[in-house]
Amino acid sequence: MGEAIDFELRDHHNEVLALSGESKGRKVLLSFHPLAWTPVCRKQMMDLEASFEELESLGVLAVGISVDAWPSKHAWAREMGTRRLRLLSDFWPHGAVAGSLGLFRERDGISERANVLLDERLREVWRKVYPISEAPDLREVLEAIRGL
C-alpha cells in the first residue's frame, strides 16, 4: 500500500521508540487513541494490554499512540497498571505521525481513533477508523492479523 512507515516517538517512560529499530521484522499495530484519561481510550489500551502476549505470539509489536505529552502518558499508564504496552506520545510536532497517516483531526487537535496494521516491511496492510466514542473490537484486529 505504498511507502514504508517509520518514525521516532517518546514513550511513557520518555524513551525513544524508533519504529524501524523496534519492529525487528515483526508486524506492527499502531493503535491511535484521541486522548489519555478518557474512558473509551482506557478500554482501548487495556484491551491491548490484556492481549499483549497473544499479539506477540502472532509476531506483532503493538503500541498505543496519542497526542498527549509523555509525562501525562506516564501517569496514565501507572494509573491503569499497564506493564508491557508502550504508550507513545505524538505530542511534538503536534500530531505529526497521525497527520502523516491522514489520521489527525486538525479542528480538534487530536487523532482519529484508529488501528493501523503494518507488515514486516512497515508497509500499511490494514486500517480501520472508529467513531471517537467507540472502542475498537480487538477480535476484529486479531482476525485481520491472522488473515495476512
Q: What do these coordinates show?
A:
With 148 residues, the protein is of the alpha+beta class. 32% of the residues lie in helices and 28% in strands. The protein contains 6 helices and 9 strands; from the N terminus they run ββαβααβαβαββββα. It has helices at 19-23, 39-50, 52-57, 70-80, 96-100, 138-146, and strands spanning 8-11, 16-18, 27-32, 60-66, 86-89, 104-105, 110-111, 113-118, 124-130. The protein is globular and about 35 Å long. The mean pLDDT is 96.
Biggest β-sheet description: 7 strands, mixed
Count of helical segments?
6
Ends: how far apart? Answer: 14 Å
> In the CATH classification, which architecture applies?
3-Layer(aba) Sandwich
Structural class of the helices, strands and pairings?
A: alpha+beta
Helix content: 25-40%
Kindly report the spatial arrangement of strands forming the biggest sheet: 2-1-5-4-3-8-9
Mean pLDDT: 96
- Count structural domains: 1
Rough outline: globular
Low confidence ranges: none
Question: Could you write a compact summary of the structure shown?
Answer:
The chain has 148 residues and is an alpha+beta fold. It has one domain (8-146): 3-Layer(aba) Sandwich (Glutaredoxin), CATH 3.40.30.
What would the keywords be for this entry?
seven-stranded mixed sheet; globular; two-stranded antiparallel ribbon; alpha+beta; 148 residues; 6 helices; 28% strand; Glutaredoxin; 9 strands
